[in-house]
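Internal ticket - ligand job 612, magnesium ion:
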Amino acid sequence: MIRFDKISKSYPDGTTALRDISFEVPKGQFCVLLGHSGAGKSTILRLINGLVEPSDGDVSVDGTKIAPQTLQTVRRKVAMIHQEFNLSGRSSVATNVMTGALPDVPVLMSLLGWFPAAIRKKCCELVELVGLREEHLKRRASALSGGQQQRVGIARSLMLDPLVILADEPIASLDPSTSREVLGHLRKIARERDCTILCCLHQVELAKEFADRIVGIEGGRVVFDLVPKDVDDKTLRLIYKNYDDPAGEKTLMEANVDKALSPAIIPG
Amino acid sequence: MSVENEMKRAAGKERPSSAWEISPPYGTKTVLVVIVVAIFMYFSGKNSEIDRMFYLLGEAAGNVVGLNESSQVVNGTQTIANAMFPLQFSEVTEVSRIENFDPEDLPMFARVETQEATTTVVDPATLAISKTVTERTVVYNPVGYLFHVVDKMIETIEIAIWATFFSIIISIPLAYYSSANYTPNRIVYGFARGIVSLFRAIPELISAMFLVLAFGFGPIAGILALAFHSAGFLGKFYAEDIENADKGPQEALRAVGVSKVKTLRYAVLPQVLPQYVAYNMYILDRNVRMATVIGIVGAGGIGQELKGRYDMFEYGHVATILVMIFITVFALDQIAGRIRSKLI
Ligand SMILES: Nc1ncnc2c1ncn2[C@@H]1O[C@H](COP(=O)(O)OP(=O)(O)O)[C@@H](O)[C@H]1O
Ligand SMILES: [Mg+2]
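stdout (structure tokens):
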């Protein structure tokens, strides 16, 4: 479904984010990218919907190579869920969900704030599917809790029946129990619709619990690519330099603090 | 970079805190700047007669507390103040000047009176001066002029509302093309920015002067002059808000291939709307105040009436107009404040 072929990416400012990455995600897989902040996870995701262009190599989705001419077609098949939810806070839940189908709404109609009946109907179904109620439809997105907002984000991403859902740290702003709920929902929905999911996470435990496959990213390279049961402390040390947190809830900040405090990791 | 810092610290190359310094807030540079500003103020003050202003003000203050006999400022103010009171509310119209006069159909509060008018006539043959008393029938309306002023004030507010409406319409495309992240290309961007600056740069009173030549006396010139000037402001304000809007929601829509216009409508507009309403209220408020002024060059509204009465030394009428303007601006301020607090 998703194919990375010898991808490298350097940003205009000279930062090399990815070095020669090749891997494939088959249809229907829940694939988790694990790695500390700055490893290159977001860059990988953003290559798939063309928010970032590769410096070298090809990305293809559903057999279509991403290029300026194919970008619109690809984007229609690829949805994205964001760490900060990226909802329009002052708009209603219903409007937020329906904006997921905006590419299908005629311009004039959309400018007037009007959505076709089919889209309104689908919005209601999806809001129910992600576990929200009718009363939430009219409420402002910013009035919901974090977990509820991310559910709205998921509902929005499903509006165009995507083949692929990209999730960039979808639970990083949520508390642990809400995180588990949201991930559970995401996986269940993906299974039912045969969606492929590529998801960045920090929490090793949650990755092991929900993923079909875990890919470790470090310094813009794939350092391991395993099924969850084969991921042990030794492999984790490849991505979190001095990994010794059995609970697996080590956050990115703690990891950085460790890094700063430990003279052992200073290169040279 | 942090690694570099760590290495420096590890190698002990950083100075101990006892050797650190915090520079004082003022130095020679500050003193120089103060001197330059003082010199500038001295010469500019001479140019702008600031010295004479203080002299006159001092004289006026002295006169008020009784230290000196006369003050030009106090005398002038007194003359005007005396002439202004009482405020002129009434209106007298000679019946002979009214077409199809019907005594049964008078305006509210008005009544028919006979007034005596004394005319002095000089006989050209004898040069004898004789006074003749003529009687004339007039309609005396105790609030006629007040009503007239209210009428003019309503016209002024209408000018302001139309001007604000048109400025909003003009500034929406201007804002779209002059915000860096939505403009299609640099040329359009530069062009739109240029128009916005140009609109802002031309004072209403001056553009109204020329528009009066093109469109004739009356509200059209006023509406256009105010609309273009405030479109310059709104275009700039909107564009800045569009550029500073939270990028998250916009990226979420861009990621699924939503067009720019739709992104603006759904990911930017809801964010900037309260601010946008506040700008429009401010512009309306400002346009009402400006609409009272542009009549001075003949562009409609109460200013035209004000200028006419002022030129004929009818200060009682002028005072009525001024009071009307104050009341309107004050009332509008109150209403605007209330609407704003409801919306945000
Ligand atoms: N727009 C950008 N411009 C320049 N450098 C960037 C940009 N986005 C990311 N980077 C750099 O690329 C590297 C990888 O970033 P990212 O993909 O965001 O990592 P992750 O999502 O794993 O935290 C980092 O060093 C980051 O600083
Ligand atoms: Mg990231």
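Auto-summary: Residues 2-261 of chain A form a domain with the Rossmann fold fold (CATH 3.40.50.300). The pocket of magnesium ion (ligand 2) is lined by residues A 41-42, 168 (CB under 6 Å).
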